Amino acid sequence: MYVLDKYEPKQLDELLCKDGVKAIEEWYLRGHKQPLLLSGPSGIGKSTIVRLFAQKHKFTLYELTPSDARDKDSLEKQTSVVSKSQSIFSQKNLLFFDNIDVFFGEDKGGLELVLKIAKDAANPVVFVANDLYADKKMQKVRELSETVALKRPNYLSISVLLKKICLDYKIKYDEGTIKQIAQDCDGDIRSAILDLDTISFYGVQASNLKLLGKRERKQDVFKTVIGLFKAHTLKEAFEIRDASELDFDMLYNWIVENLPAFYEKENLKEAYELVSKGDINRSRIYVRQNWVFLKYFIVLGIIGPAIYPTKDNFSYKITFPAFIKMMSRETSIFSKNTKAANLLKMMLRGSKRRVISELEYYKKIFSDKNMFVELTKHASQEEQEFIVEFFELPKNFLKLNPNNSELFEEEYEKKTERKHREKKDEKDDVKKNVKEEEKQNENTKEDIKHEKHEQNKEKNPKPTKDFEEKKKQSTLHNFFKSK
Questions:
Q1: Between vectors from CA 250 to CA 258 and to CA 335, what angle results, nearest 5°?
Q2: What is the strand order of the sheet 125-129 is part of?
Q3: Neighbour count for residue 334 (Cβ, 10 Å)
Q4: Model's pTM, two decimal places?
Q5: Which of 131, 150, 144 is nearest to 35 (CA)?
Q6: Which domains, and CATH codes, for the chain?
Q7: Tell me: the pLDDT tens digits for 235-272?
Q8: Which end of the chain offers a freer environment for a tag, N or C, measured as fewer CB atoms within 10 Å?
Q9: Is the pLDDT of residue 50 over 90?
Q10: Model confidence band, residue 43 (pLDDT cutoffs 50, 70, 90)
């Protein structure tokens, strides 16, 4: 049996990616109203999570991968019925799109159909992606879905799994070598198992690790930039660049932005001269449509400045390219303005262009409570929240609109609870007052009783001994006299 098949988890609790299991279970318990989008590095078990989840909850799993037909007609035949119908053998179907980030590389109308099906589906829908930002089309998937970014498993967990494999196959191993394989795989469980399978023929010892070669891993931008500036040779610099996911233009911008952090003043001029020559060759690529200049752009604009003599002790604080910040800020502002204009043109029955040009005036209009209530009376809660945030209005404005049922229910519950509390306090006060009055009445009765007793004492004083003696004698005398 193939080693990957044998050690593929059979139940959810066997998976090393615990946060993924927790995420999909919580999503299901919440009613799975939105599609779920699981993202994370390859090899951590995203697809396996979905398959085992379907198995546990007895869903019929319908899985679509990038290798399947992706045009609109083919997808419609496969998914339209599945998304709304029930299975013969189970209560529901589960529609699973694996590697959705590369699914629409050559989109032929399938994306819009998938989004529509996912939005209207009566059955749960799950997307899996390695990179949430691989394509602009992924934005629509992100907006539609509940997104969960999964973390790489800890290398210690992977070490435990590799040791278990060694014990099952009766393979002698060195603890340090197992740990090194687990660390080198960078959270990719599949590659760790395959590395162990490869080296097991020669012995799981440190001396045989070189047989695996240096696995090429994708590095994040900060490691790439720092690595380039620390490189001592062209070969080393090229290896770091090749391991980066950044395109040439983006990496060039990061290099240019961070030159002052890595260079002494006397060397900074030469570094800027190199990147300027690199920029000239970049412009030649686009103007002449001649990619021969690409190698000159890479060497002069990216590799050259990085291996030029740098500071002995430089800061590791990498600055984000200023123009990207500016562009993202402008894009964010533009998208917010566009969203506000689309919303306001429906409220005010005006044109989008005019609304955008008059946004500042509308802020004053919406600042009035009565106008806010009148203009947003047909708006949803989400739209009202956007208006309040966009125009920087007080958050209590959301409680003014009667159509905002959730907030009104919450406010009503608070008021009702407050009234109940006040009534209870009143009742407690009344009971307390009644008890105090009863106690006072009891004390008053005691005082009256005591006073009467004292008055009776004064009216009827206690007889003395002489009086008792005389009374006895008189009684005896009357008795004998009668005889």
A1: 110
A2: 60-64, 93-97, 125-129, 36-39, 146-149
A3: 11
A4: 0.47
A5: 144
A6: 3-149 (3.40.50.300), 155-212 (1.10.8), 221-320 (1.20.272), 330-431 (no CATH)
A7: 777 877 776 767 788 888 888 888 887 777 777 888 88
A8: C
A9: yes
A10: confident
